[in-house]
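As noted in the main text, all predictions were made from sequence alone. Below is one such record, for Pol-like protein.
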Amino acid sequence: MSDLHALGVFLDEKLHGARVRARIQFVEADEKPTIRFYRDDTKSVVDRRIRAVCHPGGVVVESPQAVLGDVTSIVTVNGLTSGPFPVRRGVRQGCPLSPLLYVLFSETLSTSLDRCFGFRPFNVPGGARVKCVQYADDVTCIVSDLASFKPLSKVLTTFQEATGARLNKSKTKGLRLGGWRGQSLPFDATWSDVMIKVNGIWLGYGAPEATTWAEKADQVEARLDTFSHRWLSSLGRLQL
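Prediction:
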C-alpha cells in the first residue's frame, strides 16, 4: 500500500501542467480468443523461442498442437451430463497449459501498444516509460495526450480482429486527471473525475485506503472462515 500511496502523491503533485491526463482500465474481453488464434500463436512462439534449443519437429513443438486440436467439453446440469460439444473460444479450464497460453495471447496486445509510436508513453521517476500495465485479463493504459487516443483505439481494433477477443465497453472504466476533469474524451468508457477501482485498489482523488484495506480484510476473513469447519494438516495451517 505504501507504493500505491506514493503513486497517488506523485499524481497529485503533477495535476497542473502534467503530461498524465487520463487512466483507462480495460477489463476482461466480452468474447474469448478463438481456439485458432491460440493454436496459431502458440506455434509461432514455439517456432521462435523453443526451436532454438530443441531440434525442429520435436515433441515440445507438437504437444501444444495436440492439446489445442479438437477441443471438446461437457457440462453437468441437475445431475445430468451432456454429450461432448466443440469449444471454439477460450482455453481448457483447469489445464496447466491454459495460463501459459493466455500469457502468449495477452503479450500480443502489450507488444502492439509498445510498438505503436503514436501512443506516447508516460515517463515516471527513474526513467521508466509506461504505456500499459497488465494483470491476468485486466489491462490498464495511461494516456498522456489527446493525440494518443486514436492510435490506441486502432491497436485495440486490430487486436480484436486478429484474436476474436472483444473489449467489454460496459466494464471499461476511465479516470480523468488534471485539466481533463469534466471534459468529453474521444474514447468510449465510463469516465470518473474522482476515483476508480483498479484490480481491487481504489485510485484517484481522496482514494479511501481504509476502505480498500477493509474490503480485503473482509475477503480474507471470509476465506479463512470456510476452512474453520474443515480438518487441516499442520502443513495446511502453515500455508494459511
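Residues 32 and 176 are 29 Å apart (CA to CA). DSSP finds seven helices and 13 strands in the chain. These features were considered when defining construct boundaries for the mutagenesis experiments described in Section 2.9.
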